[in-house]
Amino acid sequence: MNQYKTFGWYAARVTPHLPKKAFKPVPMRLFGGLAYLLISIAGIMTISLYDMNLWIYLMISGVLGACFAAMGFLGHEILHGTVVRNKMISSLLGAVAFWPLTTGPRLWKKWHNIEHHRHTQDEHKDPDAWFTVEAYNKSKLIRLIYRLPFVVRAFFSMLSLAVTFTAHSIKMFFSYIKDFKPGKQPAVWLQFVLPWASWIGLLLWIGPLKWLFAFVIPVLIANAIVMAYISTNHRLNPLVPVNDPLANSLTVTVPKWVDVLHFNFSYHTEHHLFPGVNPKYYPLVKAKIKEMWPERYHEMPMQKALALLWKTPRVYFEKDELIDPKKAVVYGSLGNGLNGLALPSKHEKNSSPGSLKAQKNKAKKAQ
After folding, report:
1. How many CB atoms are closer than 10 A to CB 81?
2. Residue 199 placed within a domain
3. Could you tell me which InterPro entries the record lists for this protein (predicted)?
4. Residue 348 located in a structural domain
5. In which domain, by residue range, is 215 found?
6. What is the 3-state secondary structure (H, E, C) of 239-285?
7. What contacts 24+ positions apart, CB below 8 Å, involve 38-43?
8. Of 22, 63, 160, 350, which has the most beta carbons under 10 Å away?
């Protein structure tokens, strides 16, 4: 991409083509959330009150995990103000929706709505951005991890998706709690402690075996589902000097019925362009973007995006490329040479032997 544009630049050109109702809240989405909530309560109570075959417990755990993830997707909508506009009500509903993922609404708004959306793929300001060669060079732990064979790193990276959201949420709490005014910190602490207290209370009531099926396995499944989207949202995109959603975000495609179950969470470029528009209307936004800037827009099937995550390293080199420091092999990012086979970037493949050697030497210095 030759020139980055701000999300406001794109929004100003797409907005006139959207219906006015697209900018209004859609409270009917709460009925889907209510269904997930009731199923979750029923599943937890069934495990808690009845002694059944472990395979039945496991099936219920799968349903609970799917419900926990979907509630998180709806909570994301609610806390962006696209379901109800009343701040007190949206915070309450958001707290309920994010309860299984143990993330408080005030923390989420600070971490996601403010920091991530304002500074998407900014290597210094985006709390969700992956690290650069410079950061790699400063961390003994990361350098130690990158000494492992690539396939081992890739396997454990994908496996870690089952815990990443919860772990990152805890990290964000301790990173941002000091940024809240002293008078608001008790509420943020309460929103952090209450979900964990309730789940630990459930453990004390039903015992560790049933708790494994009522909470641990479901939350691992929920993490994996949520992170399958979140990990593909930006990790294949370049780091950027301008918050350009067509450059720094990826929309993945999934079957229509999955979009229905997951509240259109797959439309991520559209979300970064219009976070205040309910995802119900993102297909309209997508159609207009593809009409106006087809060469800038990034989309691919979910399974292909996950495969590319497996095949590429997660260390940024020169902002628009990814590098495996162990092998000093450089890969492109989306819009900068990345292709379905995750081959070395176009920049590297077209380099002369001398410039390629210099590039690899520069990479090796990071080890």
Report:
1. 18
2. yes
3. FA_desaturase_dom (IPR005804), Fatty_acid_desaturase (IPR012171)
4. no
5. 7-134+151-303
6. CCCCCCHHHHCCEEECCHHHHHHCCCCCCHHHHHHCCCCCHHHHHHH
7. 39/63, 39/64, 39/67, 40/64, 40/67, 40/68, 40/71, 40/100, 43/67, 43/214
8. 22
Residue 343: half-sphere exposure toward Cβ, Cα within 13 Å: 9
Q: What's the number of domains the chain is made of?
A: 1
Tokens (6 digits) for 145: 């991890």
Contact 166, 219 (CB under 8 A): yes
Over the stretch 180-189, which tens digit does the pLDDT of each residue have?
999 999 999 9
Backbone angles phi, psi at 252, to 5 degrees: -100, 155
Q: Is residue 174 part of a domain?
A: yes
Of 71, 16, 69, 67, residue with least CA distance to 44: 67
Type of residue numbered 8: G
**Residue 28 CA neighbour count, 13 Å, CB half:** 5
SS3 call for 300: strand
How many Å apart are CA 4 and CA 239, to the nearest integer? 12
DSSP states of 321-352: EEEETTTTEEEE-TTTT--TT-PBPHHHHTS-
Residue with tokens 């007190």: 88
Both tokens of 218, joined, read 């479901």
Q: Compute the distance between CA of residue 57 and CA of residue 59 in angstroms, rounded to an integer.
A: 5
The 3-state secondary structure of 17-42 reads HCCHHHHCCCCCHHHHHHHHHHHHHH
3-state DSSP helix/strand/coil percent for the chain, to nearest 5?
65, 5, 30
- Closest Cα to residue 113, out of 146, 135, 132, 87? 87
pLDDT tens for each residue of 228-281: 999 999 999 999 999 999 999 999 999 999 999 999 999 999 999 999 999 999
Q: Please return the burial class of 341, using the count of CB atoms within 10 Å of its CB with bins 0-12, 13-18 and 19+.
A: exposed
Cα Rg of the chain (Å, integer): 21
Tell me the pLDDT tens digit for each residue of 109-119: 999 999 999 99
**Does the residue 87 lie in any domain?**
yes
